[in-house]
Sequence to fold (345 residues):
Amino acid sequence: MLPTIAWKNNKVIMIDQRKLPAKEIYVTHSNYKQVAASIKSLLVRGAPAIGVAAAMGVALAALRANSKKWTGFVREMKQALAVLRASRPTAVNLFWACDRMEKLMLRYSFMPVADIKKLLVKEALLIEKEDIKTNARMAEYGSKLFKKGSTIMTICNTGALATAGIGTAFGVLHRLHKKGMKINVIACETRPVLQGARLTAWELKKNKIPFRLITDNMAGIIMSRGIVDGVIAGADRITANGDTANKIGTYQLAILARHFRIPFYICAPYSTVDLKLKSGKQIPIEERNPEEVTHIFGVPTAPKGIKVYNPAFDVTENRLISGIITERGVIRQPYSKNLRLNSKK
Fold:
């Protein structure tokens, strides 16, 4: 199996996550518009992976730019950046990666365009390498939070399919398993697109990590049995006060965990922190196609023509979060203070 996303021969290759687990199909992207379309359609998903994909999309745009002069090159790049930024609104890693690539381009405006193109490709590959290292550090920090034999619940997919490395929340599970901690995982299916059932279960099985799959509405009864020792989830955006946007269904897990006095952790790279937003109320929440709710794999499961709510994410209030696992350590309350302190590391 190839990595979830890879740069090869000045093209971007991604596994089509919409086809998993039935088929492992890889799609080659030759230009930034194809990358943006893949981000929007969920061919590639997961906040860190989206960030890497966006960076590589910018690199593709640079390589395919026709202008040899600075002014024309910048004009073409601004257009590409706008398209990539518009592909999905919630995951801040996408904007972080685009901003980082744009700042690099502007910093070296005095150089020949051909040299700037090389720098942008190099930077995209650096972002990929950094994510791999970040995943490993988060996994190590997070693994210290759980005891041997723990049963841990998770939602959505936060593994290698969502990142360039071993994953965020899934990376912690992977590290615990490799340490011989004999953990058990409970994976929520994650309606409506079933990332937990299709992707996380697939990764858990491949890594031979003991697990059970449940439907999302089983979480409460499972927690009530006293068999869940912790809940861990990823994040697409974390605001200055520690409020966290993640896949729809995360909020209810946090509420249930608080009710049953179970630790609830978020695991995400520090690039997911958006200090410009004061609270989760300011996070833009993506509304997706109603057919994701009314159909499963193209098969209708609801009456035709009905109205649907389909927010792709929800926001978990900081008061429900026991700790935020990052590559800079486990950040705890007060988040408003400690998230800013960690920004200086």
User: Anything to note?
Assistant: The longest strand covers residues 11-15.
